[in-house]
């Protein structure tokens, strides 16, 4: 089994961001809003602070209660000195979290999850201006996954990184799985997307773009890449006998979604993406600053 840890690759991206900020003397300010005691959210806030400090971005964490988040968000959306915003979820753990995400100014949405950017992603609109200078902001974790996969040597027969690839994703959340499926399909992959209700084929080039059902066995037996992000110990973990020989396997869940034998059978196993997600957040923060705040 060949294992690819994300740390060194993430460091390369952080180095590039740090160099640009230092050489051009950019003053980028990021604000995090924390209104939960969820350990994963608190840890993510700590990682964000460390990532910002590492590349030369000023980071301020505003700790508040859930009922005050809307007011705080309204204020910082208008603050010219704030160039990027994080909200650490879950806050309510229901549809209200989505409503908050929808209210972040797109020009300050470091995680790229507001409707403005998600709609551009689903429409495969890669720029935010007619001159095609301002690249659209992409969601951090899906982007991190793609960047990790791009550094492997598994795609050379296909020319482009994902053209001609068949890829299974076990996660169809609006935060990671669904955007990732569209990003990969936009790049030419045939994507099998699974959630608790089963699997569908995501193909943005298909007439009418109607999702077609697919079974787990069919999808896994054909997939060159298998990506899992199921945060449940009750998930039926991927077995070695389900995998296509030579498959690349990536797990971004805090819960292990592959059996040990499946990890051994994989041509390449990527066990986590966390450091890369933070690096992509730093990259997005720099892009937002260049696009919308550099002259302010």
Structural account:
39% of the residues lie in helices and 16% in strands. The chain is an alpha/beta fold and 296 residues long. The chain has 2 domains: 17-106, Rossmann fold (3-Layer(aba) Sandwich); 141-274, 3-Layer(aba) Sandwich (Rossmann fold), CATH 3.40.50.720. A 7-stranded mixed sheet has the order 7-6-5-4-8-9-10, sandwiched between helices. The chain has a 3-stranded parallel sheet with strand order 2-1-3, with helices on both faces. The longest helix has 20 residues, at 274-293. The relative contact order is 0.16. Mean pLDDT is 92; it is low at 155-160.
What can be said about this structure in brief?
This protein has 296 residues and is α/β, with parallel strands linked by helices. It has helices at 7-24, 39-55, 69-78, 95-103, 115-122, 140-150, 177-186, 216-222, 260-265, 274-293, and strands spanning 29-34, 58-63, 84-88, 166-170, 190-195, 198-202, 212-214, 225-228, 248-251, 268-270.
